[in-house]
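@channel sequence for tomorrow's demo:
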Amino acid sequence: MENIALLSDPVLPRFLFTLHDYASGMAMFRAAGQVGVPMSENGHPTIGFVSAPGAAGFMGEGWWQALITQMEESAGRSIPHILDFGENCGYAMMAVRGGQRLGVLGGDSAAAKAVRQLYADLGRHLFITRPPSFDLIPSLSVTTHLAAFFTRSYCERTVPDHNSPEDKPEEGFPQ
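structure tokens (generated this afternoon):
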């Protein structure tokens, strides 16, 4: 298998987001536009998506492809995307037929190694672990959190003490 620096250009875009649905993906593109994030740099996309952990098992490769196709049509551009298979080699093999180029396949079994080699032989790639991504929690203010992320002010301060009375979660937010 080819030795690729997994977190370098051009394998992964600069910003990688966990995609749960169409609405959150489009909100991410709107927020990126509002703060002036370019859609590409040096000919490579700056924004990409990774599915929720194990999404190939509970949503399926067909659902993922349909979601990405809809996102690409709306955005007017190709979007790098990674489908998480958990440790299920069967899901990864089914996704080969659907044209999936990037995925996450955990585990160190002989079958997992064989599937990773197949992807490599086809010019595709399977990550052993999930690459870092920003997971937008739908119940929070989408625009505020994405703007903070893109301007690099998100999570750069010290973590507050969430036990104080003024830091109680918003009403209706699960504790």
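heads up for whoever presents: The longest helix spans residues 61-75.
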